[in-house]
Specification:
Layout (H helix, E strand, L loop, with lengths): L7 E7 L6 H11 L5 E8 L5 H11 L3 E6 L5 H9 L8 E4 L11 H8 L5 E7 L5 H17 L12 E4 H8 L8 H5 L7 E7 L12 H20 L1
Parallel strand pairs: 1-2, 1-4, 2-3, 5-7
Antiparallel strand pairs: 4-6, 5-6
Length: 232
């Protein structure tokens, strides 16, 4: 395999994503047409026709694999399951959402950036709209990660990211009752991380399941399991 053609494995947690999976798959392949690409859909207990659609995509694309949770376990657990299933010969691993808010057209830029001797590169939406509590929550999360978890200052995090296979394998080995990708990633030092920005676009299908109570609970659990409990 030549230096320019890197094998990229893409993990996509899916929850009720039947309206976006086909265009998402098509746009990923178009954006990375010069590279071997493998897609891994981790269906997290969808209640629509996502399962059947994923199975149909597997027939259409030899590069598509899947895993199905019987019940909804949450996006982070879906990501962890996907990381545990990556192949040993891939070069880079991507995680991205299923709702098209993470534009596949950004993938070449993420790939170019991680090849600049990086371990982890986030794609972060610029000018994101939405409820005030979501914006404040993101700021609180960044402060928490910087002060307690070793996140490099100036690096912003998101669910859209590319990483080396080596880092993916380390994160996949996470143990414990609670998992959060970025909190786990920043435990592995030294970590050469950065982010790139892309224009925010509103969600076309579905709505976010997060609200103020769920965000507060999530950040409380991150603080407990990754800071307080590990210091005991």
């Amino acid at each position: 395999m030549t230096e320019n053609k890197k094998t990229i494995e893409i993990i996509i947690p899916v929850y009720n994503g039947e309206k976006t999976l086909i265009p998402l798959t098509e746009r990923i392949h178009a954006s990375l047409s010069g590279h071997p690409v493998r897609l891994l859909f981790v269906d997290d207990g969808s209640r629509d026709g996502s399962r059947e659609l994923i199975l149909e995509l597997q027939k259409r694309y030899p590069s598509v694999r899947s895993h199905f949770h019987r019940e909804n376990q949450g996006q982070q657990q879906a990501v962890l399951r996907g990381l545990s299933m990556i192949t040993a010969d891939c070069d880079y691993v991507v995680t991205m959402d299923d709702d098209l808010q993470n534009p596949p057209e950004l993938l070449p830029r993420l790939l170019a950036e991680i090849r600049q001797d990086r371990d982890l590169v986030y794609g972060v939406p610029e000018g994101q709209a939405g409820p005030l509590y979501r914006r404040v929550g993101s700021q609180m999360r960044d402060i928490l990660f910087t002060l307690f978890l070793g996140k490099p200052r100036g690096v912003e995090v998101s669910a859209y990211r590319i990483m080396t296979r080596g880092l993916a394998q380390k994160i996949a080995a996470a143990q414990g009752p609670f998992f959060y990708f970025s909190a786990e990633a920043f435990r592995h030092k030294p970590l050469r991380a950065t982010h790139i920005l892309y224009p925010y676009s509103p969600r076309i299908h579905g709505t976010s399941s997060y609200n103020l109570r769920k965000l507060a609970c999530l950040y409380g659990r991150i603080l407990y399991y990754y800071v307080i409990r590990r210091k005991r």
